[in-house]
Each structure stands twice: as structure tokens, then as C-alpha cells.
Amino acid sequence: MRILLVEDEHKAGEYLRKGLMEAGFIVDWAKNGVDGLHEAQHSEHDLIVLDVMLPGLDGWQVLGELRKTKDTPVLFLTARDDVHDRVKGLELGADDYLIKPFSFMELIARIRTLLKRGPSRESEHIAIADVQIDLLKRRVTRGIDRIDLTAKEFSLLVLLAKRPGEVLSRTLIASQVWDMNFDSDTNVVDVAIRRLRAKLDDPYPLKLIHTARGIGYVLEEKE
């Protein structure tokens, strides 16, 4: 199991890293909020132990940004014990909250409980480049522009956006979006992609939907 520790205090970080490693975890340690968010977004971790008072970005900001794209379990570890702070953390999407000073045995117990539970939610937002997808409101924006999509176009975009960088075959897309067995003579997927591109890509210099010839399509940010 791999844990991301985001803690700026060197002594506390060394203590936690050593203890977690002795408990059998692989530990990545970020010493500020900016690095912590980058690690959380671009690397895979089973759980994140996150301090609130951090340089660069505080814990609230890190969690708020992270929850737009990922649902990695987060345990807040902080000296801030005000009930309003605890409520704020939980409302932002934290899975647990432990106050400093704490028992290390309790920390390990809470971590193991969260790991058994696994991710508790599907992220309500997906972001790639300057595109924001609100899954609950079924709203898509690119930069400051609202992108109006049909129900099928929205489902198609969400399918691609949930698997960025992965080439999805026409067969898979047809089965997931249209719940149909794909007929190679049917161009429903290609037509839908063309319509989605016209709204999402054509007006903008950075193209996000790319064709893998003979295979399918992929959504990714590349030069």
C-alpha cells in the first residue's frame, strides 16, 4: 500500500514517514501544498495523510482541487481542532480527521479502516486542460465558455474523460454510450465524435480528442 504524506514540519514528517514505513507502507513525502497536490494528481496512492497548515497551498485548497478529479481517501492530520474546521474538511471530501497530538496506534488503525473501506465516492468533477465537467449538474465548460451538449455527447465526453490517455475502441464506446453491439458498418461513434469535436475542440487551439487510426479515440492533452 502506498501513502502520500503531505506535511511541512520536518520533525513531524520524519516521525510519520518512519512510523508508516515500519508499519509496512510505502511512503511518498511532500513538504508543501503545491508539491502535495501535484503528487496526488499525477501519482497513484491508496491514501493521503494531509496537514491543513501548509505553505503554497493549504490543506483545504489541496483537497478541493483533488476532489475535482480523484477520490483517493484523505485523512486530515492537524493541530486545528475547532469543530468548524472539522466540518469544513469533511464537507470538502475528507474521509477522516485526526487532531495533533495523536496516538500513532490510532493513526494506523484509522488508516487501515479507510483502506478497507476504499474510495467512498465518485468524483463530482472531472478536469482536463481547461475543460471542467460537473457530473452532478451535467455541465461542461471550456475556459470561460459554457459547452452545451446533448445527453449522448455528454456521456461520450465523460467516458473519454474518465480514462484520459487511454485509447478506447469504437466497440467499447458504442457499448458504453449506446448500450449496443457495435456493427463495423455503423458510423454512429464517428458521427458523435465529430459533433463533440465541433463543440469542444474546433473553436480552440488546443485539441483534446484524438483519433487512433483503426482503433478508436482518446482524450488527452498533448502538444
UniProtKB/TrEMBL annotation:
The keyword Transcription regulation applies. The keyword Amino-acid biosynthesis does not apply. GO terms for cellular component: cytosol; protein-DNA complex. Keywords: Cadmium, DNA-binding, Phosphoprotein, Transcription, Transcription regulation, Two-component regulatory system. Residues 123-221 form the OmpR/PhoB-type domain. One of its GO terms (biological process) is regulation of DNA-templated transcription. PROSITE patterns: OMPR_PHOB, RESPONSE_REGULATORY. Residues 2-115 form the Response regulatory domain. One of its GO terms (molecular function) is transcription cis-regulatory region binding. It holds the Pfam family Trans_reg_C. The modification 4-aspartylphosphate is found at residue 51. It comes from the Bacteria. This is DNA-binding response regulator.
